[in-house]
Design goal:
Blueprint lengths: L7 E6 L4 E3 L5 E12 L4 E9 L9 H6 L2 E5 L3 E6 L5 E5 L2
Antiparallel strand pairs: 1-3, 2-3, 3-4, 5-6, 6-7
Amino acid sequence: MTGDPSKFSSLKLKNEGYVTYGDNNKGRILGHGNIGNSSSQTLIENVLLVDGLKHNLLSISQISDKGFKIEFDNTCCLICDKKTRNQIHWKKN
């Protein structure tokens, strides 16, 4: 999930209800789409765009189940497609 529409390589805007966070607050889902470099075919699919979400939220379990390798350090997150070796790199805000 993200609140930043600029992160999407494709985005379908549609009122899709609400997501409930761990503290029981809710965020309105504005749409969903794919994140990553579409030319390199490294995509994380079905990512939600949530109104007002200030931080990107990632399910490590869902990403690894799709064949991605995830690495974190104190400055960034690197997601690598094991099949294609293509990468998505995010710097910490």
